[in-house]
């Protein structure tokens, strides 16, 4: 991505106080933190090396040492020793982030600390920028979100009951939660499942109960879940728009001819897809594989037969 | 510092007075864009012919006060929560600035990415600015038919994982809710600021609640023993025979998919209209 001179000035102004308070980082480390390349950081440093206050003698210039690329330091930052205030969007990212943390914290004492921090940050944002943005209902509520996020932070294990998303069955597993990711509002818990020695992903809204367990983790061998080895193609009417929106993570490509979507899905044709197609409140056609098409029809016929008897 | 002092001491200001003036105005705009505001004021009460320019240290510098270890870890968690491009990079830049106040760059890696939030933020920045400035906007919206919308934007909300814009649709003459991901191409923001006022009693929530507030009805169905587990959690079940249970549950009228999902493990008994709808959908499969 190309950057403007302004982006560069902005980064350089952030670099000076950062380096003066955090001496001893290497150029690649700095580049990583500032989301740019080591070459760019070297260029920035040689530019800053020639900057300073009017007068421009060595007394007024910034004093930067980067001869050793593994150890960069600024010994005289001139007047630029303090970081610039947060931009509105930077402040918003923190304030909104803290709101979500607040929702995931049960401890009253911790909640109070987060609230205080949030109000301190809000002072740096203008009212017109915060008043009309809300994330009160950022994610779908789950009674277990707090317990799970605390388990992640405290590194404990839990026993959960879980409704399978594909096979209409409930099972019990012992897990050590590693991360909680909300994608489009739906919570996914990534956890080491002690029951089947593998990293598994569980949907928060399919967990029906959570209790603390007391297992300790010792050198588990972990297998990764397999990538889908086959794909499927289906044809949806106009109403299929919402299906595409909801499942865009498995959609490889779509083609809309004005009346129908032809959709290529990156998913193993199996129980999940059969049930999902069966559940669409409009008719969808399976183009490939053909057995999938007959399987969906067969299930529909079976269900239909129940109403005729 | 006066303008003439700036022209004298800062390298790069050359050419006629007019050229220098133009360069200076442009530089001021550029600085404002990266968040540095140049303050204009007269410093000498006796002579007001030449104004002075300065950057106020209180506005330039970040001042969060002292942060203790737990506050720093909250900030770190909050900033690293975002997986989308806009907030992720803004949060990272914010953390760098915080690290520049207290030299904590070595400490802030521990909490990364354990709780994350992932969603699209296309158009967020321009809409957000338009709301703050009270500027009217125009955009193309796909629903899935594409239409051109003229809107006074009132607010943005992350509602169940999706960003929505709430605003006054000038053509439809009423408040409408738009999903950000359905806005296609660029949003055109009118140059004029404060062209409308947001009603005092306006509340984002009132309009978003409609998205969720669907009618629910009571349903009764036979479900196969040991099956339809996710439905059982939400309803009351009584046993019928060795093969079937009977369940009473609440169901939104628009969500027939959930019932279809169970295939022949579920036989809906009432209400009759929903049952007819289910049967006709199954017949078309």
Describe this structure in words.
The complex is a heterodimer of chains A (309) and B (285). In chain A, a hairpin with a 7-residue loop joins strand 1 (63-65) and strand 2 (73-76). In chain A, the strands form 3 sheets. Chain A has a 5-stranded antiparallel sheet. Chain A has a 4-stranded antiparallel sheet with strand order 10-11-9-12. Chain A is built from 10 helices and 12 strands. Chain A is 37% helix and 24% strand. Chain B is an alpha+beta fold and 285 residues long. Chain B has helices at residues 3-9, 17-33, 57-60, 69-80, 85-102, 124-133, 204-212, 229-234, 257-260, 272-284; strands spanning 39-41, 52-54, 115-118, 137-142, 146-159, 162-169, 174-179, 183-189, 216-224, 236-239, 244-252, 266-270. In chain B, a hairpin with a 2-residue loop joins strand 5 and strand 6 (162-169). The relative contact order of chain B is 0.07. Strand 3 (133-134) of chain A pairs parallel with strand 5 of chain B, so a sheet runs across the interface.
Summary keywords:
heterodimer, A: 309 residues, alpha+beta, Arc Repressor Mutant, subunit A, SH3 type barrels, 4-stranded antiparallel sheet, 10 helices, 24% strand, elongated, B: SH3 type barrels, 3 domains
Percent in strands of chain A: 15-25%
Count of runs of 4 or more consecutive helical residues of chain B: 10
| H/E series of chain B | HHEEHHHEHEEEEEHEHEEHEH
The end-to-end distance of chain A, rounded to whole angstroms, is 65 Å
Please state the CA-atom Rg of chain B, rounded to the nearest Å.
29 Å
Distance between the termini of chain B: 78 Å
Task: Give the topology, please.
The complex is a heterodimer of chains A (309) and B (285).
Chain A: H1 5-21, H2 27-33, H3 38-49, E1 63-65, E2 73-76, H4 88-103, H5 108-122, H6 127-130, E3 133-134, H7 145-154, E4 157-163, E5 170-183, E6 186-193, E7 198-203, E8 207-213, E9 232-237, H8 241-246, E10 251-256, E11 260-265, H9 271-279, E12 285-288, H10 290-308
Antiparallel strand pairs in A: 1-2, 4-5, 4-8, 5-6, 6-7, 9-11, 9-12, 10-11
Chain B: H1 3-9, H2 17-33, E1 39-41, E2 52-54, H3 57-60, H4 69-80, H5 85-102, E3 115-118, H6 124-133, E4 137-142, E5 146-159, E6 162-169, E7 174-179, E8 183-189, H7 204-212, E9 216-224, H8 229-234, E10 236-239, E11 244-252, H9 257-260, E12 266-270, H10 272-284
Antiparallel strand pairs in B: 1-2, 4-5, 4-8, 5-6, 6-7, 9-11, 9-12, 10-11
Helix pairs in contact in B: 4-5
